[in-house]
Design a protein that fits this description.
The strands form 3 sheets. Strands 6-5-16-13-8-9 form a 6-stranded antiparallel β-sheet, covered by helices on one side. The chain starts with 6 loop residues before the first strand and ends with a strand. It is α+β, with helices and mostly antiparallel strands and about 325 residues long. The chain is built from 8 helices and 16 strands.
Length: about 325
């Protein structure tokens, strides 16, 4: 092992958060020879990046980008086998438009400060900061092949709203917080007034969600459908679910009724989301979930897939991976 290389950093300069921060990150890496910095602009370059990084055997692999960049790296780590049996723990900098994975791992605020903290940790004993996280393996249709790996999947109205924000609001060039507030206002306006218009989020499509080893499969239209292995979901509250249901993939589905959303929101504010039975709000745990639809999108950490007739979305438990968590 190259003793001078403690951190290998993969950066996506196309990530929105990196447009302003990448010059500072480059300068930091230039001043710290124990950080190896590799930049990729496209997902297909991640494999070559990891092949190169594997040769220097870093103590920590750090990903600097949005959730889509993290998903591309996790997929390549799972399918590529570049590190053999010695995959380094993964850390995520708070960059990009969405940072659900970084937030779950305690990485918030300034990405350079987070990188500095990670280097400080990498120079000592990593053990107190290592956590294992289960991963989601997504396969599309009935054919086999390598899965896409992630940690958060949004579907139904949630996916429609995320795509609406990405395609209609982000191009306005507003700050992330403002864009998210406008999206929420548009969604509430549509739901409460029952208005249909091109400038508002679309209506969710009918879905069937099959949970293996359970008899209460779901069917209908949902304002929110989410499957995750993250510890925190929605307003940063822990989503415990019901462990007796068995399985690691945590499912939450909220029916397309304003009152159901209000119940879920109130439970989330009170820290009870997933801990009490709510009409119109469904929870489950499984290791295999199948989503059938006529034409409905799901988003796994930034990448979009469409469930159509005869081509369902399959979600399964993937091999866990070690991560570096910066805060409890």
């Amino acid at each position: 092992m190259n003793s001078r290389t403690r951190i290998a950093l993969i950066s996506n300069p196309r990530s929105t958060g990196n447009i302003a921060q990448l010059p500072r990150i480059r300068a930091y890496c230039d001043g710290h020879p124990d950080v190896f910095h590799y930049e990729v602009e496209h997902a297909h370059q991640v494999g070559e990046a990891l092949r190169t990084i594997a040769r220097i055997e870093p103590k920590v692999l750090v990903i600097n980008g949005g959730d889509g960049t993290v998903q591309a790296a996790l997929t390549e780590l799972h399918n590529g086998g570049h590190f053999g049996d010695h995959t380094p723990p993964v850390a995520v900098l708070p960059s990009g438009k969405t940072n659900l994975i970084a937030l779950d791992l305690g990485a918030v605020g300034d990405p350079v400060e987070a990188l500095e903290r990670l280097l400080e940790i990498a120079r000592t004993d990593l053990t107190p900061y290592i956590v294992d996280r289960e991963l989601i393996a997504l396969r599309h249709g009935e054919a086999g092949g390598a899965p896409v790996i992630g940690m958060f999947m949004g579907g139904a109205g949630l996916a429609d709203t995320m795509l609406y924000c990405r395609d209609k609001i982000y191009p306005l060039g507003l700050p992330n917080g403002v864009a998210h507030v406008l999206t929420a206002i548009a969604l509430l306006f549509k739901m409460l007034l029952k208005i249909k218009a091109n400038f508002l989020p679309p209506d969710p499509q009918h879905l069937n969600v099959s949970v293996r080893d359970e008899d209460n499969d779901l069917s209908g239209r949902f304002s929110l459908l989410a499957v995750t292995t993250l510890e925190k979901l929605l307003l940063s509250n822990e989503l415990d679910g019901k462990e007796e249901a068995g399985g690691v993939l945590k499912l939450v589905a909220i029916e397309e009724r304003p009152v159901s959303l209000v119940r879920a929101f109130a439970a989330s504010l009170g820290g009870n989301l997933g801990r009490q039975n709510l009409r119109g709000v469904h929870f489950g745990r499984a290791n295999h979930i199948t989503i059938h639809g006529d034409s409905s999108d799901v988003i796994l950490d930034g990448e979009t897939f469409r469930a159509v007739t005869g081509s369902p979305i399959h979600l399964q438990l993937a091999q866990p991976l070690s991560f570096v968590k910066l805060a409890a």
